[in-house]
Amino acid sequence: MKDPVSRIQDSGAAPIPASLPAFSPQPSALDPTSILIVGVGGQGTILAARILSRVALLAGKDVKFSETHGMAQRGGAVVTQVRIGDRIFAPTIDPGTADFILAFEQLEALRWSHMLKPDAAVIMSTQIISPMPVILGTAKYPQGVEKSVSRRGKVFAMDADRLACEAGNARAANVVLLGRLGRELGLPREIWEQALADTVKPKFLESNRRALAAGWEHQI
Fold first, then answer.
1. How far is CA 13 from the centre of its chain?
2. How far apart are CA 99 and CA 121, in angstroms?
3. Cα distances (angstroms) measured from residue 163 to each of 60, 133, 136
4. Which residues contact 203 (CB under 8 A, 6 or more apart)?
5. Is the pTM of this model over 0.85?
6. CA-to-CA distance for 71 and 132, rounded, in angstroms?
7. Cβ of 14: how many Cβ atoms within 10 Å?
8. What pLDDT shows up at residue 11?
C-alpha cells in the first residue's frame, strides 16, 4: 500500500486558479459521492484518482482517497477509492455504498461490483486483460461480464482504448472513462479541463483534452 490516505488539499496541490468560471454546486450535489476506480497496474488508475480529486477541489468540495496496489505494480490489481462531499472524514468505501465504479478492465468491474449501492452505475472499458490463472490455463475468463455486472447497477460500456487512440494518446483510456464520469456527475467540463491542466504533463495535455471530450460526448 502506498500513501494510504491522501488529501490533495494538504499535499501541495496547485492553488485554485482565479480565472476559472465560478461554480456553485447544489447543496446535495456530490455530497457525498463515493467512486471506486479499479484496474490493473499500468492503466493509470491512480492518475485518474488524482485528476478526479483535483476536480472535486476545483468544485469547492472536500475529497479523500486511498489506493491499494497488487503484488506486482504492472499487471497487478490496483484499486483506488475516492470520496467527495462537503466534509469527508474517511477515504474508504463500505460494500454496497459506492455510487460509481470506474472500471478499466471487465473482470475488475465484475470483481468489485458488490461494492455498488442500488441504482448505482458502472463506467466500464470493454478491454480484457487475462489474469495469470487464465494465462496458465488453470481458469477461464468469465463470459458475459457486462450482463452480470448489470444485475447490480447501470452499465456504461465503452471501447475506451480505441477512443484514446483516436484522440492521439493510446495511454489516455483512463481520461476517456473520466470524461464519461464527468458527464454523469454533472459538473462543468471547464473544471475537468482545468484539472487536466493542473495534473497532466504539458506535452500530453491536448491529447488528454481530446480523450476527455471523446468520453464526455460518447453515445452509449
1. 19
2. 7
3. 30, 29, 30
4. none
5. no
6. 13
7. 14
8. 39
Those residues of the chain that have pLDDT short of 70 are 1-30, 69-75
Residue 174's nearest CA partner among 73, 60, 62, 41 is 41
How far apart CA 114 and CA 151 sit, in angstroms, is 10
Assess contact for 46 and 67: CB atoms under 8 A: yes
**Residue 131 identity:** P
> Residue 166 belongs to what H/E stretch?
helix 160-166
Residues 6+ apart with CB under 8 A from 95: 114, 115
All three cell numbers of 64, joined, read 479523500
Size of the chain, expressed as the number of residues it contains: 220
Report the Cα 202 to chain-centroid distance in Å: 21
Cα–Cα distance for residue pair 115/50, rounded to 1 Å: 21
pLDDT digits (tens, 9 = 90+) for 127-140: 999 888 888 899 99
| pLDDT of the residue at 13 | 52
Q: Answer whether the bond into residue 91 is a cis peptide, omega within 30°.
A: no
